[in-house]
Amino acid sequence: MANTHNSNKTNNLRNDVENRLLDAAEQLFAEKGFDATSIRDITNHAKCNVAAVNYHFKNKQNLYNQVFHRRMTAMRDVRLAAIENVMSQPPPQPTLTELIRAFSTAFLEPLLDKTTGRRFLKLIVREMNDPRLPKDMFVKEIVTPTLTSLGKALTKLCPQLDQTQIILSIISIVGQLIHVIRIREMMEIGHFAGLPEISLSKIIDHIVEFSASGIRVMAQGQSK
After folding, report:
1. What residues have CB less than 8 Å from 22, skipping those under 6 apart?
2. Residues 6 or more apart in contact with residue 147 via CB below 8 angstroms
């Protein structure tokens, strides 16, 4: 019993140090970028010794990778859970509107969070401008699982659509959601001054109505 208690205490301590390093690294990488952030900066911020990075993550690059892995898997799981929750409803079958609304909400809300979400967005922008991650990491962690799950759901609700139409529909929905994030960021720093602020719920309403209408038309074979 004593050995089990000591083992749990050790594991908790290890997890605490890892999480502190991940939190510190995420904040500093987002603020300063990869090259301008040293291991000592990270360990000072996390209040642990320099050797902790090597012990838990081997090196700065792997720590950077794990920062993204932690956030990407969390976002992926939220999106997949939203899709699953809608599609596992008891009869009658869920509507296309319900599916798009659940996915859109799960997509936007974590990224528009004022703390971790916004910080991770800054980090994503830095990664886009100065790529450091393995080339296939984002695709494996988020794109493929989400595309597969949402694609199956759309196929079930709109069996008239072929796979190309399914993929294009998903690209359209995700493109709108990403654009919303970018526009809201620009508005917060003073761009588009004078334009009325639109609530997130109204934005989601518009994307849902716009996307569902387009997909229904395509499913009916009326698209031009």
Report:
1. 63, 66, 67, 70
2. 167, 170
pTM of this prediction?
0.85
Please say whether the beta carbons of 174 and 212 come within 8 A.
no
Dump the DSSP string for 193-216: TTSPP--HHHHHHHHHHHHHHHHH
CB 105 within 8 Å of CB 173: no
Token readout for 120 is 């991770």
- Map tokens 């996390």 to a residue: 46
DSSP 37-105: --HHHHHHHHTS-THHHHHHHSSHHHHHHHHHHHHHHHHHHHHHHHHHHHHTSPSSPPPHHHHHHHHHH
Please give the residue range of the domain that contains residue 104.
68-219
CA nearest to 100, candidates 216, 210, 208, 217: 208
Q: How many angstroms separate the CA atoms of 200 and 153, rounded?
A: 24
pLDDT of residue 15: 81
- Residues 166, 118 share a domain: yes
Residue reference for tokens 């992926």: 76
Based on the fold, state whether residues 74 and 117 are members of the same structural domain: yes
Residues in the chain predicted with pLDDT less than 70, given as ranges, are 1-14, 188-195, 222-224
Q: Is residue 224 part of a domain?
A: no
